[in-house]
């Protein structure tokens, strides 16, 4: 964090709302000179904040004349879609006889019909699909995104709003490693504490980013022996698949040789 501070890439605002607006304004400035898909606008907070950032980014694009004036509402969010918008799916889309479009695939709104149909052309394979009414609940603006959806992506520049209770080592690594030309951090003083100077707040941020919240998978722990299986029991169930110890125990008992009953005397 000291490096980012020296480079002028730590931006502090008094509130979270101000930090969000500062990040989106910076995104709007950068996307005048760079392709939109190369400037990642990221938040580690709620979907509500992501929706707000997307709506503000769309507003700046509309002001620049990059989007059409006709807007179609999207169920579940407070913004609509316009021709020229960058979007992504939040669940799979299937149509009979056509290739499936996967959750997370991105594209561009290329046409809005008179009946409110939204035609999207998806990146990479160039498939086109129309969405209308409730089908539009699968579609979201993708100017801003949550940190989890940014994993695996590589862009030119990354703008990150962070510093709240959810800040930790694992998300910070993803946030800092997405961009080829660096990351800018947008922080709120009210989340980092009102005591002390900004240098103290940055030290507290660095401390949060050193704390790991990784969850240990259950397969990491050794399996303890179960006396009910018996000393000769061999686990033949493939690891990584659903385990049915009760069924395995029954099969083991059935496979053991049975002693002949004594004759009555």
Keywords:
265 residues, 28% helix, 7 helices, Rossmann fold, alpha/beta, five-stranded parallel sheet
Notes on the structure:
The longest helix is centred in the N-terminal third of the chain and has 17 residues, at about 45-65. By secondary structure, the protein is α/β, with parallel strands linked by helices. A 5-stranded parallel sheet has the order 1-12-11-2-10. It has helices spanning about 1-5, 15-30, 45-65, 170-175, 190, 200-210, 245-255, and strands at about 10-15, 40-45, 70-75, 80, 85-90, 105-110, 120, 130, 140, 145, 155-160, 185-190. Helix 2 (about 15-30) packs across helix 3 (about 45-65). The model has no long low-confidence stretch (mean pLDDT about 85). It is flat, with a radius of gyration of 27 Å. The chain has a single domain (about 1-210), classed as Rossmann fold, CATH 3.40.50. Strand 11, helix 4 and strand 12 (about 185-190) form a beta-alpha-beta unit.
